[in-house]
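User: Before I run my own analysis I want an independent prediction to cross-check against. Here's the chain; please return only the structure tokens and, at the end, one sentence I can use as a sanity check.
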Amino acid sequence: MKSFLVAISLIGLTGSSLLVGGCGGGKKPSSDPDVAAPQAIEHHHHPPHGGTPVVLGNELYHLELVRDAAAGKLQAFVLDGEMENFVRCSPATFEVTATVASEKRPLVFRAIADPATGEKVGDTALFEAQAEWLKTISRFDGVLTSLAIQGSTFANVSFNFPSGNDRD
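Assistant: Structure tokens:
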């Protein structure tokens, strides 16, 4: 019986050694220039509508801004930190101050109801602003004045359209 327990212990030790060795435990980085160093994982967000990403907070939420030049309209979708899911919020409106050629132009975004998704004013992830100048102006600097989303308020958030402010 004693030899059986010794054999089991040796098998366990051998297995543990292989696991530690196999995981690179104790290995030093290679000084060989032909061996590539591990790369940092890049963190990217992809706006689902191909729009402009605007980060809110420390990537707590995003706005995605999508321009419809023909209609003179700018849509704002409220999304989660990964830009994967819509986030409904309660404001009926919010404002962005756009600066075009040193001139400040307000954009008032209004909540959009969508019976197909059950969204309504006061519980929606989609807002729209309408302005004649959006038909011809495709670039501007903007500042989100203030927007409350699920208990967090974001104020004075600067961005460029169409570049955004998401530097990932």
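Sanity check: Confidence is low (pLDDT under 50) at residues 4-33, 35-43.
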